[in-house]
Amino acid sequence: MDSFAGRDPLLYNLPFPRPVYPLTHLLRSMIAILDYDAGNLTSVALAVRHLGREPRITRDPDVARRAERIIFPGVGAARSSMENLARLGLDAALAEAFSEGKPILGICIGCQVIFSRSEEDGGADCLGLLEGDVVALRFPPGVRRKIPHMGWNEVRFRGGHEVFSGVPEGSQFYFVHSYHVRPADASCVCGTAVYGGIEMVAAVAHRNLVALQFHAEKSGPPGLRILDNFLRWQPT
Amino acid sequence: MLSKRIIVCLDVRERKTTKGIRFQENVDVGDPVEMAEDYYRQGVDELVFYDITASAEERPIDIDMVKEVARRIFIPFSVGGGIRDLTDMRAVLLAGAEKVSVNSLAVQSPQIIAEGSRAFGRQCIVLGMDALRVGESAAIPSGYEIVIKGGRQRTGLDAVAWAKRAEELGAGEICLNSVDADGTQEGYELAITSMVSRSVDIPVIASGGGGKPEHLVEVLTAGEADAALIASMVHYGTHSIGRIKDALAEAGIRVRRA
What we know:
Radius of gyration of chain B: 17 Å
Strand content of chain A: 25-35%
Structural class of chain B: alpha/beta
Distance between the termini of chain A: 36 Å
CATH topology of chain B: TIM Barrel
Helix content of chain B: 25-40%
CATH architecture of chain A: 3-Layer(aba) Sandwich
Shape of chain A: globular
Number of helices of chain B: 11
Helix content of chain A: 25-40%
CATH topology of chain A: Rossmann fold
Low-confidence stretches of chain B: none
Order of helices and strands of chain B: EEEHEHHEHEHHEEEHEHEHEHH
Strand content of chain B: 25-35%
Mean pLDDT of chain A: 89
CATH class of chain B: Alpha Beta
CATH architecture of chain B: Alpha-Beta Barrel
Low-confidence stretches of chain A: 5-13
Radius of gyration of chain A: 17 Å
Oligomer: heterodimer
Largest interface: A-B, 42 and 36 residues
CATH superfamily of chain A: Class I glutamine amidotransferase (GATase) domain
Largest sheet of chain A: 8 strands, mixed
Distance between the termini of chain B: 16 Å
Mean pLDDT of chain B: 93
């Protein structure tokens, strides 16, 4: 998926008027949103801006290195996403950020490629920040469901992670995906959702990394709450 | 469990929301951006904006409006009407829309579905189709024919066959509008909705005819739709999103409560 590639520089300074920030804002660091030709980043950037922080959409690993925290969104296929990350040098920047303790938020395909391997497109090695596989949604015999899993579904959170605090019980989130993650170590699972009889992992967290299968930026108030929590989060 | 979605449709003409009956006698009902924000607060699941005159007037879609909506609401929305090519699709998506909807364009050049799907991902591409009840025949086995240009032109395409073809080409979702029911508020066209929903594996949004919550209950159960589009019944304040969802929940349909 490369059609957002070669886009005009406008996107790097979002095509929206910038709000006037108080001077103190300049002292706060930037939120890097990684652009690796995996779909549309506008809505993530707009949500971050709505929450009072200045996003910077970037494909430059050095910008990611300077950022206070990194959001790693995207839609598309695992293999092309991995190829693009490698070509841009963002795979190394992410691995560094992870080992340095910088807060990282993966969303959708960004939640999948942090695992070891995806079976999409005949199989692709992924970043391996967490151990586990990404597999296609397969339903039990006799169950027919639409693919992708598209729409609003309830996420049941567990473990009381700070990034999910204050999210009302029963909140639903917007999903669009055909593959789901299977962590090797279930202790990283923070949230699950059920579709067609499968209990899918919807959110994971490990050290300074949080990742969401759903689109928090398109999930109304509970989604914004999670993003806001992430933007304030200081992993210990 | 996935919830059934309630989607509000805003037909936009010169930056005003408008509503007609069977594509005619349109009256303005409000500012689309303010209405979008109001529906967002009421807990609508998704919004659709159709620039209803862009196509006929051959002018580009109102991108400033799309940007303004994207700044204010944080749920998915799609934009249709006046999409001419990949460049227009890209502009709409980069302005913050989640999806683009193609209708007449896809009938005239079906490859746009494949190209859009390859370029932006299939979840971004909604095929809008207007189906007219014509009676079953050899050429139109489902009894519903696709019409384009706001219902003014028949195409000879069978609605079910066209839905399957669009899925093969890479559409991520189908928004099926019944021309006969559009704007009447007398209920959705259940027969074609369930036929289409059964014949494809992608989600189907039922459109046209929603007038009271019972209609949505019907189309989301017997009609087998994954989502229901509404317009008139909420634009005039007759029903609220919350009350509609209450009624759906009472009927045992899973919905998202805001």
